[in-house]
Design a protein that fits this description.
The protein is mainly alpha-helical and 322 residues long. The longest helix is centred in the middle third of the chain and has 36 residues. It has 15 helices and no strands.
Length: 322
């Protein structure tokens, strides 16, 4: 078996083990939440003990915890996350399909915009180190990194949607019945918020690794051969400098998938973040469990892809597998 395939299988096995542990943690955490779906559904009528117990039995909440977990886990393995407890009994996958598409589109747009800009800014900051441009970029990165995303979002709303300019809608209430292509204007402010939250981390990491590579011996040799500075940067330095940045990119994309709860709530965006908030408020445990497991799976998959790309791009790691 080729070493790279063996490594991929090992990492895949560790990823599946991580997801199994996540299912235990998620299920235990949801069981520890105060109240249950029966109380959330009945509201004030939950004082009626007979009705409350009947509803608990109907929802399967009176079964032993171990039985509930094994039943849920067997359904997850088959791709069945159960039925919503407060969504009219609809399947969880049916309820979340449109929200997953919305959030995936939001994350994809933010990643496609932020990563190239971060690489470009980081590379220029490294090659123009200690210049006025580098100082301004460092100050802007530190300022943005210090601000929570909801502060950035509020500032963008005040600037472009309400107080100063009224160019963009302040609420991104996507209609699932209409094509997403005709609603791209609603994505502008949420995407801009996520982009400004991601750029500081990726660009600073790339700048640091590029500065280190530019001082290496093989880059000095390329310069002594008379190669132009742009060719030295883009063909010799950047391919090696981007290797440690891949992990940072993967972590930030995973954060985009799991950390957009605040951004979606701020802009009224109907994605998985707002769905998670609503599910926790309604004690809709199957939805909470499905969303938490989905976010964990995104982290595992992106880290696996980042590891494989790091090995494929880095000659030293590729050689070490032989």
């Amino acid at each position: 078996m080729p070493p790279l395939v063996k490594l991929m299988l090992i990492r895949l096995g560790l990823g599946l083990l991580t997801l199994l542990l996540v299912t235990l943690v998620v299920f235990a955490a949801t069981q520890a939440l105060p109240g249950d779906a029966a109380k959330a559904i009945l509201g004030k009528d939950s004082a009626n003990v007979a009705r409350y117990e009947a509803l608990r039995k109907e929802l399967g909440l009176n079964r032993p915890v171990v039985t509930q977990y094994t039943s849920w886990l067997s359904g997850v393995v088959r791709g069945n996350f159960g039925n919503s407890l407060v969504g009219g009994g609809a399947k969880v996958t049916t309820l979340l399909r449109s929200r997953i598409v919305n959030s995936a589109t939001l994350v994809l747009l933010a990643a496609l915009i932020s990563i190239p800009i971060s690489i470009f800014i980081g590379a220029l900051s490294a090659i123009w180190r200690d210049s006025r441009f580098d100082n301004v970029v460092n100050l802007a990165n530190l300022s943005l990194a210090a601000l929570p995303e909801f502060v950035i979002g509020i500032a963008l709303v005040l600037l472009f949607a309400t107080a100063v300019f009224k160019w963009l809608p302040s609420v991104s209430n996507i209609d699932s019945l209409s094509p997403l292509g005709s609603q791209m204007l609603l994505f502008v402010l949420p995407v801009a918020t996520l982009v400004l939250a991601v750029i500081p981390y990726v660009s600073r990491m790339l700048r640091a690794s590029t500065v280190e590579v530019l001082e290496s011996e093989y880059v000095m040799m390329a310069r002594l051969k008379g190669l132009s500075e742009s060719r030295v940067l883009w063909h010799h330095a950047l391919p090696n400098a981007i290797v440690p940045t891949i992990q940072v990119i993967a972590i930030n994309i995973a954060w985009l998938a799991g950390g957009i709860v605040t951004v979606e709530y701020l802009f009224g965006f109907p994605g998985i973040g707002s769905a998670l908030v609503d599910a926790v408020a309604n004690r809709d445990m199957p939805v909470v469990q499905a969303l938490c497991l989905l976010i964990a799976a995104v982290y595992v998959v992106l880290n696996l892809i980042a590891d494989i790309l790091t090995i494929l791009i880095s000659p030293r790691l590729r050689t070490g597998l032989r």
